[in-house]
Amino acid sequence: MHLISSPMESSAGSALVRIRDLVYRVAGIFQPDNRLNFLQERCSRRMKAVGVPSLRGYLERLTAHPDRELELRQLLNEITVGETCFFRNQPQIEAVRRVVLPCLLEAKKILPFRNLRIWSAGCSTGEEPYTLAILLLEESLGMLKNCKTEVIATDLNDRSLARAQAGVYGQYALRNVSPAILQKYFTPLGDQFQLCDEVKAKVTFRQLNLLDDSKMVFMKAIDVIFCCNVLIYFDGASKRRVIQHFLNNVNPGGYFFLGYSESLFGVNDDFRLVHFPGSTGYHKPTRNGLVK
Ligand SMILES: C[S@@+](CC[C@H](N)C(=O)[O-])C[C@H]1O[C@@H](n2cnc3c(N)ncnc32)[C@H](O)[C@@H]1O
User: Fold this and answer.
1) What is 90-283's CATH number?
2) For labelling, which of 50, 140, 176, 269 has a CA lying 20 to 30 Å from the CA of 194?
3) pLDDT tens across 53-89, in order?
C-alpha cells in the first residue's frame, strides 16, 4: 500500500487504519485493504470541509474534539453506499404479496385487532420502504382490509433519511415503476416526481445504527424485516450480531429478507430458508416449531 511507504506517509497510513477501525467498531462497516483508497478519499472530503490538513489531525477530530460525534456521523454519511431504486427486487415483492402477507394474515385471523409491521432496515433514500408502502396500499381494499399496516424505515445516514422524507425522485430511481403506479402515486415536479402523501404517511423514518445494541432491542414485534444490500460491507462478527437482533425483533412466524446476492449461510441457523418463485427469504419458526 502506497500509504505506508515513507515515514511521513506511514503516520498517515496508521491514522487511516485507526479511522478504519473506528468506523468498523461504530458501524460494523469493514473497509478491507483494497478499499483504503476509497476511505482516504472520503476522509479527504471531510478534511476539506472542516479545514483539517492531515489524516492524523482528522483522526484527532474524530476521537478527541468536542464535535467528534457529529464529525463521525458526517464521515459515515460519506462512506455509506446508498444505491437503491423502487421495486428493486420484484420477485421478492411478489413473494410478499402472494405468500408472506396471506400467511401472516392467516396466523392473525383469530386476533380481534390485526396489525402488520414491516421494517426496512438500511432504507437509504426511501425507495424500498415506499415500495412496500405502495404494496400495502394496493392491497388495502383486498386482503389487508381491516388490518392496520405500517412501515418503519431506518438508516444510519441522516442525509439519506432527509431525502427519503422529502419523497422526490428522478427517472433513475423510478425505472422499475409501472406507468399505472407512477400515475397513481406520483405527481410530476419539474423533471422529477413527488410521491403522494398517502404513501408517505405509511412510512415512519428513524435514524438507527444497526450496531447500536441499546436501540436495536427496542425494535420489537415486527412481522417482516427487509435488510437488503446493507450487510455486504459487514464482516462475519458484526453480521452475526445484527442478525441475532433481527431474530429477536421479528415475531414468531415472521419473515426476513436479504438482497439478491446475500445469504445467512454460516451466519445464522435459527432462521429457516424459504424458496419463493425467483427469490428466497427466511422465516422465524413459530413457538411450536412450525414453519408456515
Ligand atoms: C445499498 S443501500 C440499501 C438500500 C435498500 N435496502 C436496497 O436494497 O435498495 C445500503 C444502506 O445501508 C445503510 N447502512 C450501512 N451501514 C449501516 C448501519 N450500521 N446501520 C444502519 N444502516 C446502515 C447505508 O447508509 C445505506 O443507506
Assistant:
1) 3.40.50.150
2) 140
3) 999 999 999 999 999 999 999 999 999 988 999 999 9
Angle between helices 36-50 and 68-79 (to 10 degrees): 130
Atom of ligand 1 nearest to the CA of 120: 6
Cell numbers 453480521 correspond to what residue? 239
User: Ligand 1 pocket, 80 CB below 6 A?
Assistant: yes
pLDDT (mean) for 122-151: 97
* Per-domain residue ranges of the chain: 2-79, 90-283
Q: Which atom of ligand 1 is nearest to the CA of 209?
A: 20
Name the average pLDDT for the chain. Answer: 93
Q: Is the shortest distance between the CB of 157 and ligand 1 below 6 Å?
A: yes
Identify the residue whose C-alpha is closest to ligand 1 atom 10: 230
pLDDT at residue 155 tops 90 = yes
Grade residue 289 by pLDDT with cuts at 50, 70 and 90: low
Pocket probe mutation, ligand 1, options 79, 155, 245, 256, max atoms within 8 Å of Cβ? 155
- pLDDT at position 158 is 95
> Which among 197, 216, 198 is positioned nearest to 206, based on CA atoms?
216
Work out which ligand 1 atom sits closest to the CA atom of 157: 25
Chain segment 170-224, per-residue pLDDT in tens? 999 999 999 999 999 999 999 999 999 999 999 999 999 999 999 999 999 999 9
String of DSSP letters for 31-63: --GGGHHHHHHHHHHHHHHHT--SHHHHHHHHH
Specify the residue for cell string 386482503.
Answer: 143
CATH topology (fold) of 2-79: Chemotaxis Receptor Methyltransferase Cher; domain 1 (1.10.155)
CA of 24 to the centre of ligand 1 (A): 14
d(CA 32, CA 235): 10
d(CA 151, CA 143): 17
